[in-house]
Structures are given as structure tokens and as C-alpha cells.
Specification:
Layout: E1 3-4, E2 10-11, H1 17-26, H2 36-44, E3 47-48, H3 52-61, H4 64-69, E4 92-101, E5 111-118, E6 124-128, H5 133-142, E7 151-154, H6 163-171, E8 175-178, H7 188-203, H8 210-224, H9 234-239, H10 246-251, H11 266-283, E9 296-304, E10 307-322, E11 325-332, E12 338-342, E13 346-348
Parallel strand pairs: 2-3, 4-7, 7-8
Antiparallel strand pairs: 1-2, 4-5, 5-6, 9-10, 9-13, 10-11, 11-12
Helix pairs in contact: 2-3, 7-8
InterPro entries: Integrase_cat-core, Integrase_H2C2, Retrovirus_Pol_polyprotein, RNaseH-like_sf, RNaseH_sf
GO molecular function: nucleic acid binding; RNA-directed DNA polymerase activity
Enzyme class: transferase
Length: about 375
């Protein structure tokens, strides 16, 4: 049994820390392969040990599943624009459709879903459905938050430009806002959540109950996970309550053991956006990778359908520079052949030492 601290959290001995990290990062019901900050705040609210932040960041950064599936493109050269945010829950929502797979010879049906994101609380709602206006209107009519909605932000898809949806909005005095055509960042709030949900489903390809059950689990995960923009989880922002995770029930943690709080006031949230914009505009496009001979890298090798193919890790055997600037990487593939990849298609791979080392058994917690 862990020692209980004065604030209600548990102190984790060294032999159980890897087990806690696996439960709250790798596991589908409580981890979701979250990023560094989400995993840190999730564990920080329940446990404590010395230098836990550094250990959590190192563990997440060295996760092989995350590094392969969350491989990122080099961003475009755009300056960040901070829009005015809604100040009331469920007053402004962002809506979009997304597809996991299209109908083809290999797939009998198109796997698509609609997503709704509240601008104020970042609460996510999603439902598996085909992309047509009748299905969307039927879903909105049954949605419990419909009476609070005053504005809907969407892209310029045919569903969102249809006369039926316009009439539906006019009857309920809802303003429809369409973002710029062929510019996904215009509806970035929905696009980001779609990306996170897709990555969650991709991390757990054999999820019990199929992709629809995985979609439901992904939405629950998003709503109970720490959101850096609002300084807490969407559930906590909307209802002021902390949600118990499956791992909490396994270990025996209760709500009074979780030290959760609102980390950002309105003023701090504004400062956060301004600081984020400053560093984004100043440093976002500067090279961040410290690749040298002997480093391990992941290489983007094109697409298979719509899925990005990332191979590796491979060992770097040479660097090609032009005017002192690193342009290409020479690496050795699994067959021992030397190949060349452009720097924009390469990401540094962080290996996890002693990954399979012994750790405390969860059944002993």
C-alpha cells in the first residue's frame, strides 16, 4: 500500500513507478498514449515522487508507439492568429466530419463520424454516422446541448452549406460560420480533436467492440484528460468534477485522493495564448533536432492509402550539409543498405533503455 501524503495523493516507491507510467500512458482505458503534459498532469493529480516530471517526460518521449504513429510533418510558415474565444459553455461549437477509412475493395463500408467541440470548455462529442445533412440534423435535434448553442463553426463542406442546415439554424436562431475553403486550420479546434481521436483509435487497433467502441472511448478520454489551453480537463471545466479512471479503480484511488484544480484563470489563459504566439512566431521554424552520426532516426516513406508510412528506427551513418546547413541524412536500413532521406522527412528516435526491466505488479498495489 502506498503512503498517503497530506494533500491526499500517494507517494510511489521506485519499484512501482514503471507500472504507474504504463497504466497511465500505455493502457487504452486510462492512458491513451497521451503526450508529455497530459500524462504528467494526470499522474501529478494522483501521485508524487521526486523528479517525477523529468521521468514522465522521458518515458513518454521514448514510447515507440507514439513516435511511429504521431510522426509530425514540418509545419508551414504561417504566423499564429489568436481568435476571440467564447466565454459561456456550449455557446459556440465547432463541427466537422472525419473518416477513418473509405469504402473500397478492402473495406466494405466507409467508417466516418461527426465531431462537436465546445469552444469554452473544449468538451468533445462524437457519433459514428455517414456524412449527410439529414443524419447531422437528426443528431443535433437529439443533442442535449442544442438549446445553449448560438453559433456553429464549420468548414465549407456540402453538408454545412446545404439549405436544409441553413433552415434548421434559422429556426433556432443559430449563426452558421463557414471557414475559408481548403484551409483546415480555419476550423483548427475540430481538426485537432479529430487528429487526437484518430491517433487514439490507431494506437488500439484491436479495441474490444470495434472502431465505434474505440471512438466512444476516445471521446471519454479527451473529455477527462488535461487540456493545456484551459488548464484542466474539459469535464472539470464544465462540471467542476474529477473523473475517476479505470486505473484509479484498480489501485483503489478515490476522488479525495486526486489533487485536481483549475490551473488557469482567464488572465493566465490570455497570457498563455500570447506567450504561445510569441514563441511560435519566433522559433517554430528553427531546426530543433540534434542529429549526428550514430543517432537513431525514424523516416517518413510516403503514404499507404491515406496512412502515413513511418519506418525505423535506423542508424545514422552520415550527414550531408550545404553551406553549413544540414540537408540530408544518410542512414542504414534493416538490410544494411545505405539510403538518403531529406531532413524534413526524418525525426530523431528516442530509445527507452531497460524497457523490459522488472517493475512492481499492479495486483500488488
Amino acid at each position: 500500500m502506498f503512503k498517503t501524503l497530506p494533500d491526499g495523493r500517494y507517494f510511489v516507491p521506485t519499484e512501482y513507478r514503471t507500472t504507474i507510467l504504463k497504466l497511465y500512458h500505455d493502457d487504452a482505458s486510462s492512458g491513451g498514449h497521451d503526450g508529455q503534459f497530459r500524462t504528467y498532469y494526470k499522474i501529478k493529480a494522483r501521485f508524487f515522487w521526486h523528479q517525477m516530471k523529468e521521468e514522465i517526460i522521458k518515458y513518454v518521449r521514448s514510447c515507440s508507439v507514439c513516435q511511429h504513429i504521431k510522426f509530425k510533418y514540418k509545419p508551414r510558415v504561417d504566423k499564429m492568429i489568436i481568435p476571440n474565444q467564447s466565454q459561456n459553455p456550449f455557446e459556440v461549437v465547432h463541427i466537422d466530419f472525419a473518416e477513418l477509412t473509405k469504402r473500397s475493395d478492402l473495406n466494405l463500408k466507409t467508417k466516418s463520424f461527426v465531431i462537436i467541440v465546445d469552444e469554452f470548455t473544449r468538451m468533445v462529442f462524437a457519433k459514428a454516422m455517414k456524412e449527410d445533412v439529414r443524419s447531422l440534423i437528426h443528431y443535433l435535434k437529439q443533442h442535449p446541448k442544442l438549446p445553449f448553442i448560438k453559433k456553429i463553426v464549420s468548414d465549407c463542406g456540402t453538408v454545412f452549406k446545404s439549405n436544409a442546415l441553413v433552415r434548421f439554424a434559422e429556426e433556432r436562431q443559430i449563426i452558421l460560420v463557414n471557414t475559408s475553403p481548403y484551409h483546415p486550420p480555419g476550423n483548427g479546434l475540430a481538426e485537432r480533436k479529430i487528429r487526437d481521436i484518430k491517433k487514439f483509435i490507431e494506437c488500439y487497433p484491436n479495441f474490444r467492440g470495434g472502431w465505434k467502441a474505440a471512438l466512444e472511448a476516445a471521446v471519454k478520454h479527451e473529455n477527462r484528460s488535461y487540456n493545456n489551453a484551459i488548464g484542466c480537463s474539459p469535464n472539470f471545466k464544465a462540471y467542476g468534477k474529477t473523473t475517476l479512471l479505470e486505473a484509479d479503480k484498480t489501485i483503489g484511488i478515490k476522488e479525495q485522493n486526486i489533487h485536481d484544480e483549475m490551473h488557469k484563470t482567464a488572465e493566465k489563459q490570455k497570457e498563455y495564448y500570447e506567450k504561445m504566439k510569441f514563441y511560435y512566431d519566433k522559433k517554430h521554424f528553427e531546426p530543433q533536432q540534434n542529429i549526428c552520426e550514430g543517432s537513431l532516426i525514424l523516416v517518413q516513406c510516403g503514404f499507404k492509402g491515406k496512412k502515413l508510412v513511418v519506418n525505423g528506427p535506423y542508424k545514422v551513418v552520415g550527414l550531408m550539409k550545404t553551406g553549413g546547413i544540414l540537408k540530408n541524412i544518410i542512414y542504414e536500413d534493416e538490410k544494411g543498405n545505405e539510403k538518403i532521406a531529406h531532413i524534413t522527412n526524418v525525426r530523431l528516435y528516442h530509445s527507452r533503455k531497460n524497457e523490459e526491466s522488472s517493475s512492481g505488479d499492479v495486483n500488488e498495489l
